[in-house]
Design a protein that fits this description.
single chain, 896 residues, alpha+beta, nine-stranded mixed sheet, 39% helix, binds serine
Length: 896
């Protein structure tokens, strides 16, 4: 059975059983800082499990793209070594949100495996949770498996590590039951098909499907302490390893031999001109490159790019490991990895059209990283050489990085330390190395933000009571019949807020827009006959609960009172202009730069807009101009801006753009500009009625924020006009200072700068002359230069001269004394620089380089050079006179 048929069969089976088929979400987690990458099918339903979000279906099934290469779920170090681990894989899953539970989940799994796929029941093993001091043993699952048809001796209990699943440190979780498959030759032979292989060593059995009985939310109660809170509705989350199931059904013993991955390996083998064998360093390298090429192609297509932090660092690590293995073990000496990722695109594009859509971009990003890496890559030992240099101090962070990004074996690192005579016991090495590695990996993970991501359950509870607030802000700026339905002081629910207090007010109806999709929350007022509150921010901790953060200016706001809610309309209008302009600039960037441009973040505020997008190089001034022209043309055409609500599938099929990292429900709002010909995007924000309302548009900056991600800022409407007016004033002022005409302003400035340069040079020359004269004159009288064993030594401190002038001065002085030694020290900016000159007739006896080596350490620095001239410096200006004085002694020493 082909891989694609298995995927289809799975989805069809569950669709037939009342499940809604849901698309894979992108690999970039949506609004979830607890995750590096999407790591399971259930991620996109996390809030549904937690009861913070409702869908219009209670059963779902999907085939989900996953990456497990960091955080709670990390298989990176297993890749290539086992027959079944991957960084990137697909997970087939069925889900129940408070609908069916354990019994049906087990029934479906049995029915699908045994009756649909016709797997040999003698090869199946089932594991259940053995229980611990927090969660009871899952006796029920044992009975249900037996009831479904499983052999009792094939059901095994295991502890937390194997049979309790959680997505991250916090979030939905529960005991699980895994189905394992025996891959050996003799399923009937109990000596061979033995329970010890289940969750044991090697690849004799392999987990193929995990059924999680979602019953808890794991929350952090204090730093590093967690507790389990029961979910309001027990749910089901299952995940089947797609590549593993393909291995089973295709009768091969590793996932790398399935039709999903073997062609990639064959492609690599051909490219390298080597044969693929499982048991060889080359075979291992080919598996790593194949796996990592899949992860890379899919990650880049979903807007994750290699860089130095967080998930982007993990991707860089994956890419660099692949490139390293290709060069080190497969003999590639030029760019090759981009060819492999392109092959992945070719192979998978039918099932995942996003790969095809981003094909050129993937190609470009991979090449870029390969070039970047290739330029610095000196593999293994050479890299160690760089880290150690001549020094014997060990920078464990650097070593850990080497291991982490190149996979340089730990042993090799230790051996090379020994070779350099660095003594360290194995225990000490392990302890220090592991600590550095842990710190390194933590710094690249998202652990720290976990707490913030945890939403206080109070909000979901209040939402249940108050119901979803109705938002009127698309059409209205003022609502007269709103009612206060809840009040919070921080995260504590209270009944009233009195004058002077700050708190959060929840209304049943509101015109206030809660911060979302980059658009900032509204500000305004909430007024009742007895009270006035000024709202300074609006946001929604859970979807549907709109919180107005407010300060009470007068009277008391109580739960139950009727109020008038009024937003600051002027600010909102400015925000509308910037929001619609954001859509236009997105469209214009794609038009001008290419369709690889994807929104990677945005801020829509009243006074500016900021737009982050994927692109690999700075915009040229020509490109900036083109984008501005295009947006302003859209504005002048005054095209209508309209919205429709539709099912997400319909929206996606219509070609509307969705944003990565954004979460969408089953019905979405689609914003069309110019009937959809200019721009069509999923968006819940507030917009102008027609593009002409934006007035004008100007980009104010373009910068890089990560590799492959750029950020532009822009202004619209009044702000753009004001900017124009301010600039005019600035120019007028400059013109009157420079007494010139507008079109001659740049050349006038240029002239002035040249003049300044010339004058500076003259001043410097004069200073050298003065210094030479002063020192030279006195030295002629014999009171400046000292005679050391018949050699004239002139050592001086100077001020106000730059490095060039000091060199010039040393020349002049040496010319003056003809035969001898000149030492000049100069301080400035907390630093010291030193120069030593020796006349040619003396260089066989006195070496300038040696003098500097004696005196530079006195000012806390170093120096070196040739026998006739040496330079150095240090960072202790207060010691300069001591160093100058020491030069006489240094000469003396050399002559004696
Ligand atoms: N979430 C569980 C897993 O990833 C089951 O889908 O194994």
């Amino acid at each position: 059975m082909k891989g694609s048929e298995i995927r289809q069969k799975f989805l069809e089976y569950f669709e037939k059983n009342g499940h809604k088929i849901v698309h894979s979400s992108p690999l970039l987690p949506a609004n979830d800082p607890t995750l590096l990458f999407v790591n399971a099918g259930m991620n996109q339903f996390k809030d549904v499990f937690l009861g913070n979000e409702k869908r219009d279906y209670e059963r779902a099934a999907s085939s989900q793209k996953c990456i497990r290469a960091g955080g709670k779920h990390n298989d990176l170090d297993e890749v290539g070594k086992t027959a079944r681990h991957h960084t990137f894989f697909e997970m087939l899953g069925n889900f129940s949100f408070g609908d069916y539970f354990k019994e049906d989940a087990i029934k479906f799994a049995w029915d699908f495996l045994v009756n649909e796929l016709k797997l040999d029941v003698n090869r199946l093993w089932f594991t259940v949770f053995a229980g611990d001091d927090e969660v009871a043993a899952d006796e029920e699952a044992i009975e249900l498996w037996i009831k479904a048809g499983a052999r009792p001796d094939r059901i095994l209990p295991f502890g937390r590590k194997d049979n309790f699943w959680q997505m991250a440190e916090t979030g939905p979780c529960g005991p699980s039951s895994e189905i394992n498959y025996y891959l050996g030759d003799e399923p009937e032979n109990p000596e061979k098909n033995h329970p010890k292989w289940v969750n044991g060593e090697g690849d004799t059995t392999m987990e193929i499907w995990n059924l999680v009985f979602m019953q808890y939310n794991r929350v952090e109660v204090s730093e590093g302490k967690y507790k389990l809170e029961p979910l309001s509705a027990p749910s089901i989350d299952t995940g089947m390893g797609f590549e593993r199931m393909a291995a089973v059904l295709q009768g091969v013993s590793t996932t790398y031999d399935t039709d999903l991955i073997r062609p990639i390996i064959d492609f690599i083998a051909e490219l390298a001109g080597k044969k693929y064998e499982y048991e060889s360093p080359e075979g291992f390298a080919m598996r790593v490159v194949a796996d990592h090429a899949r992860a890379t192609a899919f990650a880049v297509a979903d807007g994750i790019l290699p860089a130095n932090e967080g998930r982007n660092y993990v991707l860089r690590k994956i890419m660099r490991r692949a490139i390293y293995h290709g060069r080190e073990h497969l003999g590639f000496d030029g760019l090759f990895f981009y060819k492999v990722t392109d092959f992945v695109v070719e192979q998978m594009r039918e099932a995942y059209p996003e790969l095809e859509a981003q094909r050129d971009f993937i190609d470009k990003m991979v090449r870029l990283e390969e070039e970047r890496f290739g330029a610095t890559m000196t593999v293994g030992l050479e890299k160690l050489e760089q880290i150690f240099g001549d020094s014997k101090t060990v920078d464990f962070t650097q070593l850990a990085k080497l291991y982490d990004t190149f996979g340089t074996p730990k042993d090799l690192i230790r051996v090379s330390m020994e070779e350099r005579g660095i003594e360290i016991t194995e225990e000490e090495f392990d302890a220090k190395f592991d600590k550095a590695l842990k710190e390194l990996q933590q710094s690249s993970e998202i652990g720290k933000t976990n707490r913030k991501a945890q939403i206080n359950p109070i909000y979901a509870e209040v939402l249940k009571k108050t119901g979803v607030a109705k938002f009127h802000g698309y059409d209205e700026t003022r609502i007269e019949d709103a009612k206060v339905v809840a009040i919070f002081d921080g995260e504590k629910q209270i009944d009233e807020l009195t004058a002077g207090a700050e708190g959060s007010i929840v209304l049943d109806n509101t015109p206030f827009y809660a911060e979302a999709g980059g658009q900032v929350g509204d500000t305004g007022t909430i007024v009742s006959p007895n009270a006035t509150a000024s709202v300074f921010d609006t946001y929604a901790p859970v979807s549907g609960l709109i919180i107005h953060k407010a300060k009470i200016e007068r009277g008391t706001v109580k739960v139950g009172v009727e109020v008038t809610a009024q937003i600051d309309a002027e600010k909102r209008d400015a925000t509308r202009r910037n929001h619609t302009a954001t859509h236009l600039v997105h469209a214009a960037l794609r038009e001008v730069l290419g369709t690889h441009v994807k929104q990677a973040g945005s801020v829509v505020a009243p006074n500016f807009l900021r737009f982050d997008f994927t692109h690999y190089q700075p915009l040229t001034s020509e490109e900036v101009k083109e984008v501005e022209d295009l947006v302003n043309r859209y504005i002048l055409q005054n095209e209508p801006v309209e919205t429709d609500i539709m099912a997400i599938e319909e929206a996606m099929n219509s070609g509307a753009m969705a944003l990565f990292g954004e979460k969408y429900g089953s019905d979405v709002r689609v914003l069309r500009v110019g009937g959809g010909t200019f721009s069509k995007e999923l968006c819940g924000g507030t917009h102008v009625r027609a593009t002409g309302d934006i007035g004008s548009f100007k980009i104010t900056s373009d910068e890089s924020i990560a590799s492959g991600v750029r950020r532009i800022r822009a202004i619209t409407g009044f702000d753009a006009f004001e900017r124009f007016r301010d600039d005019e004033i600035l120019i007028e002022k400059s013109l009157s200072f420079l007494k010139t005409q507008r079109d001659q302003l740049p050349s006038a400035i240029e002239k002035m700068q040249e003049e300044l340069k010339r004058v500076r040079r003259e001043v410097e020359e004069l200073r050298v002359k003065i210094a030479t004269g002063a020192i030279g004159a006195s030295s002629a009288n014999g009171d400046e230069a000292r005679e050391i064993r018949g050699v004239k030594v002139l050592a001086k401190e100077v001020a106000d001269l730059d490095a060039n002038a000091v060199r010039q001065l040393s020349d002049n002085l040496l010319n003056k004394i003809k035969s001898g030694v000149v030492v000049i020290g100069r301080k400035g900016d907390g630093k010291v620089s030193l120069i030593v000159r020796v006349s040619d007739d003396l260089t066989d006896k006195i070496k300038a380089g040696n003098i500097i080596k004696e005196i530079a350490p006195i000012v806390g620095g170093r120096g070196g050079g040739k026998p006739d001239m040496a330079e150095g410096g240090g960072s202790a200006p207060e010691k300069l006179s001591e160093a100058i004085e020491a030069s006489y002694g240094a000469v003396e020493k050399m002559l004696s």
